[in-house]
Design brief:
The chain is an alpha/beta fold. The protein contains 12 helices and 14 strands. The strands form 4 sheets. A 7-stranded mixed beta sheet has the order 1-9-8-5-4-2-3, sandwiched between helices. The protein has a 3-stranded antiparallel beta sheet with strand order 7-6-12, with no helix packed on it. Helix 4 links the parallel strand 2 and strand 3. Helix 9 packs across helix 12. The structure holds pyridoxal-5'-phosphate.
């Protein structure tokens, strides 16, 4: 059998242009096949190798690879000690997992509004939302632009809060020159296929704290350990202990082989994403009815997403027409508290005005390393045409 890395799917004459897509090459395939033929399909040498590679890349001391970004957020909340009645503060403009992780632990997400220019969580509103029950802050580096971490760390220090960064969009992003991953108590990444690198499903928690690292490893695998220094007694070489209630959130060696191989291409992937963003920026600069997010000086965006705002009353039509053109536009995100589940559990009175305003005009455009210049020009042309034609 000859293995060939695929191209994006063709629908009709013009290729459908997805908003995000993995890029897998033959080297990735070879590395995965090598593990499939080895002794370990799961929990073998590739997991630690992947953890060490990501830790080294981001500058964090420890890394725990897990089965998804959502699992990473869940065990991070457990390791932070989030329990019944505890509050965490996060943004409404995120994937639901950034808030769900607190609910898994019996905690309660509280939504702080966003800054109207960067669309990231507003430190001033975090300050306003703090109560005696607040235990952790979960900032999300939306689109890949780091949040205002100095301000967020200042608030955390003042109130004794744990900071868990949701870095799902921000692998390779920098804040004041330092890569996202080693700046806070914990940072979570996702390796879903639309993210910067993929393991199909997968995630990771990074930390510089040895105690947190130990707890994260326990929660990943049933709360069970064989590590001598953690065991309460030693009954023999077969012996292990369950010290807490954990989960099976393990990732496999097969997946980590893909992750290791993908990480080697991350610099290229980032470069492509930034080039694409620059082309969009230039195309939309000064364009009537198209707003792009402000980029802060101290932040280097890794561009998981490229979003624009169009006038709210035109959004639906523009979106529809772009889909008809074969462009996989999307909306990231519906404010989390809008979802029926959140409405049912007491968030029906919640509203963050800036997040509401943003949501009404938001559209995500295609951005991924395999997007060709020609495809991007087509996207730009369609966006400009529909924005100017739609009334
Ligand atoms: C993708 C994503 C997650 C969840 O990651 P999974 O690996 O899909 O579980 C969490 N938060 C944000 C902001 C994401 O984009």
């Amino acid at each position: 059998m000859k293995l060939k890395a695929g191209r994006s799917s063709i629908r009709g004459k013009r290729a459908y242009i997805p908003y995000g897509r993995q890029q897998i090459d033959e080297e990735d395939i070879r590395e995965v096949v090598r593990v499939l033929l080895s002794d370990y399909l799961t929990t073998g040498p590739k997991i630690q190798e992947f953890e060490e590679a990501v830790a080294q890349y981001t500058g964090a001391r420890y890394a725990v690879a897990v089965s998804s970004g959502t699992a990473a957020l869940h065990i991070a909340c457990l390791a932070a000690g989030i329990g019944e009645g505890d509050e965490i503060i996060t943004t409404p403009i995120t994937f639901a997992a950034s808030a769900n992780c607190a609910l898994y632990c019996g905690g309660r997400p509280v939504f702080a509004d966003i800054c109207p220019d960067t669309y990231n969580i507003d430190p001033a509103d975090i300050q306003r939302k703090i109560t005696s029950r607040t235990k952790a802050l979960i900032p999300v580096h939306y689109t890949g632009q780091p949040c205002q971490m100095d301000e967020i760390h200042g608030i955390a220090r003042e109130h004794g809060l744990v900071v868990i960064e949701d870095g799902a969009h921000a692998l390779g992003a920098r804040y004041r020159g330092q890569r996202i991953g080693g700046l806070s108590d914990m940072t979570c990444f996702s390796f879903h296929p639309v993210k910067h690198i993929t393991t199909a499903e997968g995630g990771m928690v990074l930390t510089n704290d040895e105690k947190l690292y130990e707890r994260l490893r326990l929660y990943r695998s049933h709360g069970i350990t064989r590590e001598e220094k953690l065991l309460q007694e030693d009954q023999g070489p077969w012996y292990y202990e369950q010290l807490d209630l954990g989960y099976n959130y393990r990732i496999s060696d097969v997946q980590c082989a893909l992750g290791i191989s993908q990480l080697k291409k991350l610099p290229h992937f980032l470069q492509r994403r930034r080039e694409i963003a620059r082309v969009y920026d230039q195309a939309f600069e000064g364009q009537q009815d198209i707003i792009t997010p402000y980029q802060r000086e101290e932040c280097e965006n890794s561009y998981h997403l490229y979003v624009i705002q169009v006038p709210a009353q035109k959004r639906r039509d523009i979106f529809q027409k772009l889909r008809e053109d074969g462009i996989g536009v999307n909306v990231h995100y519906i404010p989390v508290y809008h979802h029926p589940y959140y409405q049912q559990i007491g968030y029906d009175g919640v509203s963050c005005p800036q997040a509401e305003q943003l949501y009404r005009g938001l559209i995500s455009l295609p951005i991924h390393p395999g997007l060709s210049r020609e495809e991007q020009e087509y996207v730009i042309e369609c966006v400009k045409r529909h924005v100017s034609e739609t009334v």
